[in-house]
Amino acid sequence: MGFRKKNKSPPVLSHEFVIQNHADMVSCLAMIILLGLMFEVTAKFAIMFITVQYNVTQVLDEKQEAVNLYHYGPKDVATVFFYLLIAVILHALIQEYILDKINRRLHLSKTKHSKFNESGQLAAFYLFSFIWGCSILTAEDFATNPTFLWEGYPHTRMVFQVKFFYICQIAYWLHALPELYFQKVRKEDIPRQLYYICLYVVHITGAYVLNLHRLGLVLLVPHYLVELLFHASRLFYFSDENKQKGFTLWALLFVIARLLTLTLSVLTFGFGLPRTENQGFSLADGNFNVLTVRMTCLAAICLTQAWMMWKFINFQLKKWREHSQNQASKKKTVSPKSKPSKREHARGGSANGVVKSDEKMSPRARKAKAS
C-alpha cells in the first residue's frame, strides 16, 4: 500500500514496488498538475484538469439573476483523470490509516480480510455519495415534482454541483479498475468486482452523456443507501458474527429500491419522454429522444435490475441453507442421545443378569429356590 514503510525495499519498477508505492507515485503526478497553475504557460492546461469546464452564464426569467450552468464536452476526460488520481490517493489513505488498523485487531482470515477491505472502502464512498446526492435533490426539489425528470428535455445545462457529482462518480468507478491490481484482489473475486464496476461506469456515463442526469441522480441516491446498509452490515458481521439484523433490513430495502428503479424508468422512458415537445436525434443539441435510444436505455436498466434480483435471490437461498445447517448442527450438539450413568448401568446390568439367570434356570431349580 502507499504511504507504508517497508523494511525490505523491492527492486525499482517491479510489480511489488509499484503496488507498495502506487499512492506516492500518483501523489507526485497530481502535484505536478497542481504546480502547473503557478506558470502562465501551463496554467491553461492545468486548469483543464482541475476545474469543471464548459460553464455558460444564463439569466433566469423569473429571478432576473445570472446563473452559471455547465454542459459536458471532451475536456471532461482530463477532469475525470485528475479526480481519478485523487480517488486513488484517498483510497490508500483510508486503507492505511483506518482499515488496516482495524484488521490488525480483528485477526481475520484472508477471505474475510479481502471482503472487509472491500466493504470498508465502498461503505465510505456510498455514505459520502448518498449525503451529497441528498443535498442536491433537496436543493433542486426533485422529489416534489416527478415530471421534472423529463420536462424540458434535453437537459443540456447542469448546475455546478450536479456536474461535479457526475465527474467524481465516473472518476471513482474508473479508479476501481487499477485498484484491483494495487490491492492484490484474489483471482476468484476479480470477475464479480469487474461486473459491478463496469455496470456503474456504463450506467453513470450513459446518464451523463445522454443528458439524463436528473433521472440518474434520483436512481443513484436510493441505490447507494441500500448498498451502504449492506456493506455496513457486513462490517459489523465481521466484527461479531451474531450481528446479522442489518441484513434483514437491507433485504427489504433492496427489493423496494429495485421496484422504485423500474417504476421511475418505465415512467420516464415509456410515458414522459415520448410526450415531450422535443422529439428527434441531434448530437449538436444533445437530444436523444428517439424510440431506439429510449427502448435501449429502458432495456439496459430492466436487465440490470433483473440480474441484481437474480443475484439477490441466490444470495438469500445460500444464507437460508447455511442457517438451516447451523440450526441442525446446534440441535445435535444441544440434545445428544442420552447415555445411562454408571449407577444406572450397574443396576440395569445386575437386573438384567438376574433376569437372564432366572431365565436360564430349569423348572426344578426354580421350585427349589421358591421353597
What's the short story on this structure?
The protein is mainly α. The protein has helices at 15-35, 40-50, 76-106, 110-140, 160-182, 190-209, 213-239, 245-272, 291-334, 342-360, 363-370; strands at residues 55-59, 66-70, 280-282, 287-289.
Explain this structure to me?
By secondary structure, the protein is mostly helical. 71% of the residues lie in helices and 4% in strands. It is built from 11 helices and 4 strands, in the order ααββααααααββααα. It is globular and about 75 Å long. 23% of the residues are buried. This is Translocating chain-associated membrane protein.
Please render the helix and strand layout as text.
Layout lengths: L14 H21 L4 H11 L4 E5 L6 E5 L5 H31 L3 H31 L19 H23 L7 H20 L3 H27 L5 H28 L7 E3 L4 E3 L1 H44 L7 H19 L2 H8 L1
Organism: Mugilogobius chulae
InterPro entries: TLC-dom, Translocation_assoc_membrane
Subcellular location: Membrane
Defining traits:
two-stranded antiparallel ribbon; two-stranded antiparallel sheet; globular; transmembrane; single chain; translocation; mainly alpha; 11 helices; 4 strands; 371 residues
